[in-house]
Design brief:
Layout: H1 4-12, H2 23-41, H3 83-92, H4 103-106, H5 108-122, H6 125-130, H7 135-147, H8 155-171
Length: 181
């Protein structure tokens, strides 16, 4: 499902992704992105969130949850979650992901596109890395409420940090400062 060619095609749709700043910053961004992908997908083995019991519908921002629609649990490399994220991604791609969120789990290119879109447009992860805020800022952006704010990093946050350090090592770059929440 997760192919290299689909990832490259998706990344090409967002030219600043992995190409902003110095070579070290570019490598850190790719390391950060893939650390989160590795964590979220269990090393690319999961397309859908394991626990699919959560509906993840929040209508306070004005985005509905159409009747009969599947739940808005995580799908794809960064596990796109919540009705408002599916709606925004669908608008970005001129698709109705709010009505059919499972399209993200049925199309490898769309899965990669939605994850790079989220990284670049909706989560501030790209900015966090390219403006040297550190990897910890990406953890807060992606899953901060669950993994940060408890006084110290949780086991999932530590997992993300470990993956990030590993990818930085493989790419021959220092992980930089501010790795934790």
């Amino acid at each position: 499902f997760y192919t290299y060619s689909d990832f490259i095609a998706a990344a090409n749709g967002f030219p600043p992704f992995g190409s902003t700043g110095s070579l070290d910053v570019q490598r850190r961004e790719l390391a950060a992105y893939f650390a989160h992908v590795k964590h979220e997908t269990g090393t690319l083995q999961f397309i859908r969130e394991i626990n699919q019991n959560n509906v993840y519908c929040d209508t306070t921002g004005g985005v509905s949850c159409p009747a009969g629609t599947m739940a808005y649990y995580g799908r794809g490399p960064l596990q796109l979650t919540w009705n408002y994220n599916y709606d925004a991604a669908g608008r970005a791609f001129n698709m109705n992901l709010l009505q059919n969120p499972d399209q993200v789990a049925q199309n490898g290119l769309l899965a990669w596109r939605s994850s790079v879109w989220f990284w670049m447009q909706n989560s501030n992860c790209h900015t966090a890395i390219t403006q040297n805020q550190g990897f910890g800022a990406t953890i807060r952006a992606i899953n901060g409420a669950l993994e940060c704010g408890r006084g110290s990093e949780t086991e999932p946050a530590q997992s993300r940090i470990t993956y990030y350090r590993d990818f930085c090592s493989q790419l021959g770059v220092s992980p930089g400062e501010n790795l934790g929440c």
